[in-house]
# Entry
Amino acid sequence: MEWQKAQLTSTISERSGPVADLTFSPDGRLLACGSCDSSVKLWDIETGQRLRSVFGYPLGVNAVAISPEGKTLAVGAPDGSVDLWGIETGQHLLTLRGKGRITSLAFTPQGKTLICGSDPSFSDTLFASPSAQSSNSIHQKAGNINIWHLASASLLHTLGESEDTVNALSISACGKIIATGHRDNTVKVWDIKAPAQPRYIFNDHTDAVYGIAISPDSQIIASGSGDKTIKLWHLKTGTYSSLIGHADAIYDVIFSPDGNFLASSSGDGTIVIWQLKTGQKISTLSGYTQHLNSVNTIAFSPNGKKLASGCGDGTIKIWNLS
# Structure
């Protein structure tokens, strides 16, 4: 891919508040957006048209995820609930009840399990979504990382200390490990089959970890921090390398689907593309096309040809990388 020639193809904007999370559908046709307004929106990438909105989140949404088969949308709310919606029908399917603001969501590769990260220092029940009070809600007292079995709507595991804050999480493509980034500057790696204690704890960041990603081959974990650095943790050797190229906190990191590149977004309004083999910065998406505020979230399309970025100014930009 000729990353240096990345082009801005469209800008989606409704000025509805900062964009907090983005995720593509498995076929790359839809983009789900969670933001600081009262709804989650589904956009058609080719036309730029809004296909559907899910309302009922007056305090905003920090986390969204689409199931691997592309039929279910998961929405994390500030009251600790996670709503599951049918993408084609718009029907509410189920509510899972935890505690604290939901900060991150990830389906396992088979789609049978949902992993939820939360911030237990913030919990709101006054503005709980109406579905959270319905008869098909599952209520549990839960910790900061919850692993839910969806078919039975049962809580399989709770990871970590109850007061730890999870800012971000990622599940490996093999479905065997979970990586989490925390407010206390740490990165933790969990074995999903034996999750009693983290397999690794990395504490070399000097500020909160806001972005986390696992490489497609499950060998490298990337973490982005308020200390303006990205660290690449090599699981086989237990060593790390640092990438430095942003002028502000790094809010998201994501590997390209082929595993050869890493994208990072920052409070400085830029997106940087890194070549993993050399550790070199090969492109900065900025200039006249740059966001006017912090870039909070980024997402690669499944084929790696597009990159979506969400900004604090309420805009979403779609970049053509092919």
Notes: Residues 56-162 form a domain with the Methylamine Dehydrogenase; Chain H fold (CATH 2.130.10.10). The chain has no helices and 29 strands.
